[in-house]
Amino acid sequence: MTLDNYKQCTKTIMDNIADPQIIFDDKGVCNYVREYERLVRMRIPPSGKLEENLRLIIDKIKSAGKGKEYDCIIGLSGGVDSSYVAYLVVQYGLRPLAIHLDNGWDSELAVSNIEKLIKKLNIDLFTEVLDWNEFKDIQLSYLKASVPDGEIPTDHAIYATLYKYASKFKIKYILSGTNIRTEGILPRSWARGHLDFKYIKGIVKKFGKVKIRQFPHLTLFRLLLYNLFGNLKMISLLDYVDYNKSDATKILEDNLGWIRYGSKHYESVYTRFYQGFILPRKFNIDKRKAHLSTLICSGQIDRESALNEIKLPPYLDSDLLRQDLEFVRKKLNITQTEFDKVMDAPPKSINDFPNNFELIEKFRTIYNFLKKRKII
Prior knowledge:
This protein has a single domain, classed as HUPs (Rossmann fold, 3-Layer(aba) Sandwich). Helix content is 52%, strand content 7%. It has 16 helices and 5 strands. It has helices at 31-43, 50-64, 80-91, 108-121, 132-145, 152-168, 180-183, 197-207, 220-229, 245-256, 269-283, 287-297, 303-310, 318-332, 336-344, 357-372, and strands at residues 72-75, 96-102, 124-129, 173-176, 233-236. α5 (132-145) crosses α8 (197-207) and α11 crosses α14. With 376 residues, it is of the alpha/beta class. The mean pLDDT is 93.
C-alpha cells in the first residue's frame, strides 16, 4: 500500500492497513465507530439505569444459587478484565467458582497474580490443564495453516471449559470479563470461529499429527444444547458497571497486589509473542489499533495519546523478543527454518478450511431475536 492510498479514521486510529475492507464516511469516520455505538446501545444499559440493572442481575444470581456451593462461574486468566470481575463479584457478595485454563503458556507473573487474587478474595479455583502434546499439535497446525486467528483454540477451550463446569455444578450463570468499553472494536477478518469446532478439526486434520481426544471443545449440537435447553446464561458483567480500565487496574494494584503486564492479554507468553510479532510481521495486524480505538470511543484515552502509543513497537524490549522467539520455538519443537517458512507462507482465512461459521452466525441471529422478544 502506498502513502497515496493510506487512510486513517479521523476519530480512532483504525486504518486501511489494519483492515483493507474498512469504510469511511464523508467526515472520514470509520465504520467501527458506528459499530461501537450500536453495540453500546444494544449491550450497555443507560448510565442512569446501570445500578438498577446490575442489582437485578446480582439478585437473580443469588436466588438461583441458593442451596448450592457456588452461585456463579467466572473465568480467570490473570488479566485486568477477568481479575476485576473476580474482585467485583466478591464485593457484591456472590460465591464464585473461578476457572483457569492452563494451556502451557502462563507467564510467571500471571501465575503470581492469580494466586494473589484467589488468596486475598478467598475464592475457590479450578485449573483445567490441557494435554500439552495434543494442544501443541493444534497450535502448530494453526501456524502452518497461515490464518491470523491462531489463538482461537485457546478461546474455544475456555468457553468449553466454562460451560462444562457450569453444567457439572448446575450453576446457571457464567460471568465473563468480555466487555464493550475495552473490546468493542475488532475486525471480523482478524478472528472468526471462536465457537466453531469444525474449523479447529479441519485445520488439525490437514496439518496436525495427533488426533484430538482430550481437548475441551463445543460441538454445534452441544452449543445449541447449552444455550437453548441448558438454562445457562453468560453475562458480560463489566457492561453493567461504569468500567474504566485504568481505574480498575489501580484498584487491583492497591487492594490485591496485582501487577500489570504492559499490554492487553500479555499475561500469556504465547499471546505476547503472537500479537507482538507474528500478527504485525505476517498479517499487518497490530491489535493495539483496535484496543486503543475502543478506548478512544469509550472516552478512556484521547486520540493523540493513542497515536503516540501506536508509534512505539509492540515489543519495547528487543531482548525480550529474542527470548520469546527462542522460548516459543523450543516449546513448540520447531526449528528456525520451519518457523521462517511459516512466516513466509501466504496468509489464509477461515474460508479456506471446513467450518460452521455461517451456521453459527444464523443461530446467533435467531437466538438474539428470540431473546429480545423474551421467547427464551
